[in-house]
Amino acid sequence: MLTSIDAIASSIPKMHTILKDCPFEVIREMKIQTFKKNKFYLPQGEMHAFVYIIVSGNVKVYVMNQSAKQVTLDVYSCGNLIGEQEAMIRKPFSASILGISEVTLLKIPDKAFLYWLSKDANFNQIVISSLCEQMYKLTNRTIKYSLDSVRSQIISSLIEESYVQKSMIIQKKAILDSVSSTNRSVYRVLNQLEVEGSIVISGDEIKIVDREKLWMDPERKR
Question: How far apart are CA 23 and CA 39, in angstroms?
Fold first, then answer.
């Protein structure tokens, strides 16, 4: 178990890149925290006085739509920051954060984070790149949710999850969370895709049996 900042920086390349020029004053303010699955939670709409850097594990970023349906925006892993934009503009969290595995994090007070940004050009560039990447992903997801049909969203999510997970077996909940529509509509399309021979549904899992067919579906946005 990694119990010191030095151990984290020396054993994890991504963390070394982030921490290599971190001022000592900031390191003194950092705390290492580990949470069991589903125990790390920061709710949307609330102020939180800390920025977090993920050392290990996976964290889901999600929002609730007007129908109280949960929509996943992204899944963060090692090296991703949580709460950096809210710290910079002093606003409540725009999305909820949930650890979907055991997670280890560096917890940094907002004031120390802002000081770090002002003193470390390397870290400043990392944060800018991270924010740009988030904006790029969010723009693509906005297009997907607002313009794509439910079928197109589901097919894109199936293909994306298969590449991210490196598996043809996808958890049904991952698809439900990634599509901006009612669960009933999602199930209807999934059943259609099963009848067409693209997938097989078994309990909580979806197995992709013909990814090429999904890829070539006329409703999938190219």
Answer: 30
